Amino acid sequence: MQAMRRTPPFKIRKERVADFFTKYVDGWLLGxxxxxxxxxxxxxxxxxxxxxxxxxxxxxxxxxxxGNGEAFSLFLSKYMxxxxxxxxxxxxYKTFRCGLVHQYFPKDHHGITWNAPAEHLKKVDGCYKLNxxxxxxxLEQAIAAYKSDLDRDESLQVKFAxxxxxxxxxxxxxxxxxxxxNAGSSNTVEVFHHLFSEPPSHP
Length: 203
Hints:
By secondary structure, the protein is mostly helical.
């Protein structure tokens, strides 16, 4: 009996991944965070919310599935190890990410600071402080390390493709991210076509 051939796992072409990081990640996601981080006005909650959601997103790419607290912690453990001890104590995903996203304040009186890097990851009167700009710098370093691993690690490439496949419909996915021109016309695909075009410029 003829042995059945295994279908190789789907991976996105490397040049498409490079486009994703150049245009979407560096040009838009990190571009927005950098722009906000440079402002004189205190945008601590804005920057922290963007960064924590970016960590959530990259954790989902790292794990190859929808983001959650477990994936968030695994990403911190791998790429942001200075946060691990605090995460184990207060659950950064729940306390900071979900607190800021769902109620616009960190939970349990923990805080976000602005232009105060010396306070970053410090515990004061029983509450931890995250400095927004320091958090943004740590995110950039984490993304760079993840991208370096992604370029070399086939298992991460497969997970990346799995997560991106869940972002758009199955009918549209291959055409959109493999570049064969067969992507459909759903609203989500139109958004991704925009993301893969030139990133917006800031004044």
